[in-house]
Design brief:
The chain is mostly helical and 282 residues long. It has two domains: 2-157, no CATH class; 161-281, no CATH class. The protein is 56% helix and 5% strand. It has helices spanning 2-19, 26-38, 60-81, 97-103, 134-157, 161-171, 182-190, 220-241, 243-254, 259-267, 271-281; strands at residues 53-55, 91-93, 113-116, 119-122. The chain has a four-stranded mixed β-sheet, with helices on one face. Helix 5 packs antiparallel against helix 6. It is globular. The chain binds zinc ion (ZN). Residues 140, 144, 165, 168, 176 line the site of zinc ion.
C-alpha cells in the first residue's frame, strides 16, 4: 500500500506540473489536490470482508453496501472496457460531507462521487438520501479508475472529459446523468445545444464539459448532467455502431494513446465526422 501511496503522491504533482504556472484558479485547485493526497481513503480503516473498501468511522454500514456492489461493478467495467483492472481500486465511503470534500481532490461535496489519484471517493449522500444511485455511481467512478490505473494521471487528464464521462455513463447505464432523459438530451442536440467534441483534455478543464452554445437549463449542475447524458449517448452510439472498432479504440486509449489517435485506430475516421453522423441521426 505504501508503494501505491508513493506513486499517487508522485503522479498527481507531476500532473500539476503539466499545467505549468499560470491559471489563477490552479492555486486553489492545488490546495484541494494536496488536501486529497493528505486524506486519501487508504488511511481509513478497511472492511475485514473487502480490504479495498475503506470507511470513515460512522460509515461502516455504507461501506458494507459498497462492498456488496463492488464485485459486480468491477466485472461490469472489465467486460465493457475489454481489459482487467491494472490493480485493485481503493474505495472510500464517507460519513460526513466535510471529510468527503477534503479527500476528493475537488474540495467540494457537490458531486456524489469523485475519482482522485486513482481512488474512488463516495459521498455520504449515496448512503442517504440518494442510496438508489449507489450502484450506478460506483460503477461510473470505477470506469474512471480503470482508465487511470492503466495510463496514469497525466495521460488521463489529457483525455477529453466528454470521452471519460460518456464512457462512464454508458458503462454504468446512466450513472451520473440520471436526472436528464434521453429525449431531453436529443432535443438539445437538435437545437444545436450540445457538448463540444474536444479532442484533448487538460487540468484547466478537469471537470465539466464545454458546450457549443449555452443550453436551456435551470442550473449549472443541470448543464453538466445534460452534457454527461449526451456524451453517454454518443459513446453508446460509437459502441453499438461498430463494436470491434470501439474495442480497438478503447484498447488504444488503455495503451496510453491520445484520444484522437485512438479513435482513428478504431474507426479509421475522425471523431468530428463520427459526431456529425451521430448528431444527424439523433
Ligand atoms: Zn465522471
Amino acid at each position: 500500500m505504501r508503494r501505491r501511496i508513493f506513486w499517487a503522491i508522485i503522479g498527481v504533482p507531476s500532473a500539476l506540473i503539466v499545467i505549468g504556472a499560470g491559471a489563477a484558479f490552479s492555486l486553489q485547485m492545488t490546495r484541494h489536490m494536496i488536501s486529497g493526497l493528505w486524506n486519501m481513503p487508504d488511511r481509513l480503516p478497511a472492511l475485514s470482508t473487502n480490504s479495498q473498501v475503506h470507511y470513515q468511522p460512522g460509515a461502516e454500514d455504507f461501506a458494507r453496501d459498497v462492498a456488496a456492489l463492488y464485485p459486480d461493478a468491477i466485472a461490469r467495467v472489465e467486460a465493457m472496457h475489454g481489459r482487467r483492472f491494472a490493480h485493485p481500486v481503493t474505495v472510500g465511503a464517507y460519513a460526513t460531507p466535510e471529510a468527503y470534500a477534503a479527500a476528493n481532490g475537488q474540495g467540494s461535496d457537490v458531486p456524489v462521487g469523485v475519482t482522485f489519484a486513482g481512488r474512488v471517493n463516495l459521498s455520504p449522500k449515496l448512503f442517504w438520501p440518494q442510496h438508489q444511485r449507489l450502484r450506478a455511481i460506483l460503477t461510473h467512478e470505477l470506469s474512471h479508475a480503470h482508465i487511470n490505473g492503466w495510463i496514469g494521471a497525466v495521460a488521463y487528464i489529457h483525455l477529453p472529459n466528454w470521452f471519460k464521462e460518456g464512457l462512464a455513463v454508458m458503462v454504468s447505464e446512466g450513472g451520473g446523468a440520471e436526472s436528464v432523459s434521453e429525449p431531453e438530451a436529443r432535443a438539445a442536440i437538435q437545437r444545436g445545444e450540445h457538448f463540444l467534441v474536444e479532442e484533448t483534455g487538460s487540468l484547466r478543464t478537469l471537470v465539466g464539459v464545454k458546450f457549443t452554445q449555452a443550453p436551456r437549463a435551470d442550473s449549472p449542475s443541470h448543464v453538466t448532467l445534460l452534457a454527461y447524458r449526451q456524451a453517454g449517448m454518443f459513446v453508446r452510439y460509437l459502441h453499438d455502431s461498430d463494436a470491434p472498432a470501439f474495442q480497438r479504440m478503447l484498447q488504444a486509449v488503455l495503451d496510453g494513446r491520445p484520444c484522437v489517435e485512438a479513435v482513428r485506430v478504431g474507426y479509421r475516421q475522425d471523431i468530428q465526422a463520427l459526431w456529425r453522423t451521430f448528431a444527424r441521426r439523433s
